[in-house]
Amino acid sequence: MSDLFTADERARFDAGLSELLSHYPADRKRAAMLPVLRLVQSLKGWIPPEAMKLVAEKLETTPERVQEVATFYVMFHTQKPGKYVIDVCTNLSCSLRGAEGMLAYLERRLGTKAGTNGDKYFLRETECLASCGTAPCLQVNEDHHENLDKAKLDKLLETLT
Amino acid sequence: MNVEKVVTRNWGKPGQNTLQGYKQGGGYAQLKKALELTPDAVVAEVKKSNLRGRGGAGFPTGLKWSFVPKDNPKPKYLAINADESEPGTAKDRFILENDPHSLLEGIGIACWALGAHTCYIYARGEFKYPSAVLDKAIAEAYRDGIFGKKLMGKDGFALDVYQVRGAGAYICGEETALLESLEGKKGWPRLKPPFPAVVGLFGCPTVVNNVETIASLPPIFEKGAEWFAKLGAEKSGGTRLVTLSGAVKRPGTYEVAMHTSIKDLIFDAEYGQGLPNGRKVKAVIPGGSSAPVLTADEIDVKLEFDAFKPLQSMAGSGGVIVLDDSTCAVRSLWRVARFYAEESCGQCTPCREGQPWMARLLRKIEEGRGETKDLETLMGVAKSIAPWPPIGLGNTICALGDAGALPVQSFVQKFKSEFEQHIAQHRCPYGDKPWGHYGDFA
Ligand SMILES: Cc1cc2nc3c(=O)[nH]c(=O)nc-3n(C[C@H](O)[C@H](O)[C@H](O)COP(=O)(O)O)c2cc1C
Ligand code: SF4
Ligand code: FES
Predict the structure, then answer these.
(1) How many domains does chain A have?
(2) 8 Å CB contact of A74 and B435
(3) Residue A1 lies in a domain
(4) Rounded to whole angstroms, how far apart are CA atoms A105 and A100?
(5) Per the CB < 8 Å rule, is B126 touching A129?
(6) Model ipTM value
């Protein structure tokens, strides 16, 4: 467990953890699970198995409980994702405004298939992102882009180096 | 249409999303006013306003609050539902982005009324920007002494407000799944009763309210419950936010009157401005993708909560999705069904097995591989999850079951010939994939 975090990461984890625990009743440490997993992911880019053990210990629960949560929520990466995680909404409102075509275009441009994790890109279909009135939309590493057309998308892709 | 703006009244004003800007417009004066009333008087005022929940069910807010037991010695909690994940719905995020303090002021009012000293705002994990704006606003409110040991300086009444971010699970918008998630678990809905107002977060009485519901409180206390009730229609007070998407010239999020009809929303110059390229309305999903679909002859219906009952549909979360006459009903439904299949939490058998089964059947039909018996199977599966009509007969722990089953039954009933055509012709009569005329990603 010692090499999970660098010294700096460890300091940030400890500080974040004590802040988060202060948001809940003292006997309800486990409640901090989602925020703490988010914290781990912000430090490491994903949630490695050693981190689950650490989180379990800090939140006074079992690694199984932590894993159950980490795998239930799609935003938690239990495998190391590519450099750019691209989540394309293909739900109805977005599909009506061209999202299917946008996804096919991205597959061509990035040379990958939706659902496959690569070193550089992890292109995924995702569900409604609350941009239905500003469709189509996608997120790159959680940054949100909406009202997309080909020109805007091309520009965005240029920034993904 | 000249609708008096309530929730959006200050959107776009410079600095509105900062404490200073909010206070310049009279912000937090209503919390101050509410704190001079007794908690019971605040609840009575909210009841009188006919405010109804904007999260989907349209439940009267004051009534929900009054279910919190007075004699329970346990702490009470307020949980704000900012999970906004019902497909077609994009409104709460704009409250967080444009006017976060209106939510926070509303939280102060609600917590005073409920005797709650802790509020958790559960925001969907994908809300990176809205959540950042909200975090800043919460920090400002603490710094200004609004939250903390003394709510707005009120001796003996502490209030802590925390934002918790979800991590990508639609089901966590369901109020008991939200509570499970807040307790650090996977989002498995709880059996009801007991309802959260009695046994909620950490086993304590908890009110769960939508962002828009709570952001409506400051204007109610500013202009009075009677004003708010009168602004509405029938038993639905105020105005409401709707998201118009799909086949319209001007999609977007609009504040409309309760008596605005879906037809007006689609065609009015202030809103949708009609359909592009001379297309015609084929169908409208009126309240988020779980709401039973309406045909073009059924859209002269008010957006008020009770108006949808005769149509066996619902106003839901205000997500109005317009399908035009060039859009395939089967493919549209398949998109919807896929979502509920993906998002079923897996806890009850009819939903866990049934939703993916329906999605598979729909895909099969859409791709021209359907057989006549598939349509019967599809309807049988849907009915076994939640028969329709009417709404509300579901056989599952939570209403996600219904949410997936209602669209299937309503689409098949209202557009049956289209499903049959797919099966008879062994192909989608609308051809052409990928889909959507409005994109240009060739
Ligand atoms: C499957 C499902 C998903 C839901 N998603 C949301 C949501 O994203 N946001 C929301 O406010 N309510 C959602 N609800 C409704 C909540 O359960 C709850 O009724 C609502 O938050 C209560 O707030 P209100 O009375 O202010 O409307 C959902 C319900 C179900 C069954
Ligand atoms: S109805 Fe579906 S989502 Fe709801 S508890 Fe059952 S399996 Fe889970
Ligand atoms: S359908 Fe894509 S954001 Fe809602």
Answers:
(1) 2
(2) no
(3) no
(4) 9
(5) yes
(6) 0.97
Q: What is the CATH number of the domain that holds A137?
A: 3.40.30.10
Question: How does strand B206-210 pair with strand B77-82?
Answer: parallel
| B388 burial type by CB count under 10 A (0-12 exposed, 13-18 middle, 19+ buried) | buried
Mean pLDDT calculated for residue range B16-23: 97
Chain B residues within an 8 Å CB radius of A128: 85-89, 289, 339
Facing residue for B433 by CB, picked from A100, A139, A143: A100
Sheet holding B239-246, edge to edge: B252-257, B239-246, B319-324, B281-285, B294-295
Rounded to a whole number of angstroms, the distance between the first and last alpha carbons of chain A is 33
* B292 and B185 within one domain: no
Parallel/antiparallel/unpaired status of strands A143-145 and B77-82:
unpaired
Residue A1 confidence (pLDDT) above 60 = no
CA B212 – ligand 3 centroid, Å: 19
Phi, psi (rounded to 5 degrees) for B411: -65, -45
Helix (H, G, I), strand (E, B) or coil at B261: strand
Classify residue A130: in a domain, yes or no. yes
Would the pLDDT of A103 be above 70? yes
Q: Do B439 and A68 touch (CB under 8 A)?
A: no
Q: B181 lies in which domain range?
A: 19-231
pLDDT of B436 over the 80 cut: no
Phi (first) and psi of residue B246, to 5 degrees? 90, -135
pLDDT value of position B196: 98
CA distance A119 to B270: 47
The CATH code of the domain that includes A17 is 1.10.10.1590
| The pLDDT value given to residue A102 | 95
Q: Which among A133, A39, A129 has a CA at the least distance from the CA of A87?
A: A129
Last residue of a domain, one of A45, A72, A99: A72
* Widest Cα–Cα separation across chain B: 74
Query: Residues of chain B with pLDDT > 90: what percent?
Result: 96
pLDDT at site A85: 97
Question: Collapsing DSSP states into helix, strand and coil, what is residue B129?
Answer: helix
Range of the domain at A132: 84-159
The number of folded domains in chain B is: 3
Nearest CA in chain A to B317: A130
DSSP letter for B305, please.
G
Residue A108 makes CB contacts below 8 A (sequence gap 6+) with none
Q: For chain A, what percent of residues have pLDDT higher than 70?
A: 99
Q: Is B126 on the interface with A (CB under 8 A)?
A: yes
What average pLDDT does chain B have?
A: 96
Ligand nearest to the CA of B208: 1
Confidence of residue B433 (pLDDT cuts 50, 70, 90): low
Report the 10 Å Cβ neighbour count for A66.
Answer: 27
Q: In B, residues 47-76, which contact A (CB 8 Å cutoff)?
A: none
Q: What is the mean pLDDT of residues B334-354?
A: 97
Count of CB atoms situated within 10 Å of the CB of A14 = 12
pLDDT for res A11? 97
Cβ within 8 Å of residue B306, ≥6 positions away: B58, B234, B235, B236
A91 → chain B, closest CA residue: B335
CA dihedral B365, B367, B368, B370 (to 10 degrees): -30
